[in-house]
């Protein structure tokens, strides 16, 4: 990869991270259009096995005009490297500067138990995958290649995200970890950080939602290791996470208070921050909270 990052035409420095998989695609396209109309600069989506993130990306790109669409993240165990690269180049050719390919190694329990696959050493697996992607001839959609970022939490994966990708997509991290990611990557790579927020309701309800959100990840070793590196301890990694962990990772309070978490990541060196609204389950409509946050962030 070149030293300079592949350009992305973000209309704003703040975007949205939303699990669109449970929604019918035409309804989801309507939500994407409203996200764009609110002034957010991007829509990133996960890939949990319900839908193909590249196909969803194509639908959202077609439904909007300026919104950057990204995978956060596309699971490398779902598709072999060559179609991952050629599919991403096709989207980049159709929508220049508006697609970001986020890639990740997923988690051993999911790959082995749910997918019945084999989970090898994450760093070596990702390196091999990226090298195979890079073997696609330049003549395939020549000149069209999206920015490529990795779900990188540890220092070695962050370093790889600068070596064979355009940067990193940190998830469930503090602003201090965003700063550490920037320090490893230097100034010429993308740092696109996710920030969860829980607004609306009273303080107890917000904390409950934050614990439910963090609790989904506390059994996963990749995140446990990440939080230990970030200064938390074993007591914080109890099921659901400690109050300290939940409050550090999820912006709570008013929309203005939650927006301050987003600003802290930008101040720490993130190029772009994507907000994940933590609601009542995966089918909760993110738009009421996003409207408040758009106003608080003066988008």
UniProtKB/TrEMBL annotation:
Molecular function GO labels: oxidoreductase activity, acting on paired donors, with incorporation or reduction of molecular oxygen
Residue intervals of the Luciferase-like domain:
12-214
Q: Which InterPro entries match?
A: F420-G6PD/mer, Lucif-like_OxRdatse_MSMEG_4141, Luciferase-like_dom, Luciferase-like_sf
Offer one Pfam family short name for this entry.
Bac_luciferase
Query: Which species does the entry assign this protein to?
Result: Mycolicibacterium arabiense
| Name of the protein in question | LLM class F420-dependent oxidoreductase
PANTHER family for the chain? CONSERVED HYPOTHETICAL ALANINE AND PROLINE-RICH PROTEIN, PTHR43244
| NCBIfam families hit by this protein | F420_MSMEG_4141 (TIGR03620)
């Amino acid at each position: 990869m070149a030293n300079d990052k592949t350009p992305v035409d973000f209309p704003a420095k703040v975007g949205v991270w939303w699990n669109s998989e449970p929604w019918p695609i035409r309804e989801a396209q309507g939500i994407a259009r409203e996200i764009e109309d609110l002034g957010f600069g991007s829509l990133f989506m996960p890939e949990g096995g319900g839908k193909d993130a590249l196909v969803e990306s194509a639908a959202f790109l077609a439904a909007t005009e300026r919104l950057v669409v990204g995978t956060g993240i596309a699971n490398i165990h779902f598709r072999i490297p060559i179609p991952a690269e050629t599919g991403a180049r096709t989207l980049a050719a159709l929508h220049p500067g508006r697609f970001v390919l986020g890639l990740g190694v997923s988690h051993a329990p999911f790959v082995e138990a749910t997918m019945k696959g084999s989970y090898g050493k994450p760093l070596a697996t990702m390196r091999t995958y990226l090298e195979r992607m890079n073997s696609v001839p330049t003549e395939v959609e020549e000149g069209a290649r999206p920015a490529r970022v990795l779900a990188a939490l540890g220092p070695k994966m962050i370093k790889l995200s600068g070596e064979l990708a355009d940067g990193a997509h940190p998830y469930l991290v503090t602003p201090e970890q965003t700063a550490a990611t920037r320090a490893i990557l230097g100034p010429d790579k993308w740092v696109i950080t996710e920030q969860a927020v829980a607004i609306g309701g009273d303080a107890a309800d917000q904390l409950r939602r934050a614990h439910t959100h963090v609790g989904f990840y506390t059994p996963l070793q990749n995140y446990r290791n990440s939080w230990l590196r970030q200064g938390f301890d074993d007591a914080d990694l109890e099921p659901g996470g400690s109050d300290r962990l939940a409050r550090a990772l999820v912006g709570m309070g008013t929309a203005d208070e939650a927006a301050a978490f987003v600003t802290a990541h930008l101040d720490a060196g993130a190029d772009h921050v994507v907000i994940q609204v933590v609601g009542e389950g995966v089918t909760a409509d993110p738009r009421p909270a996003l409207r408040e946050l758009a106003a608080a962030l003066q988008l």
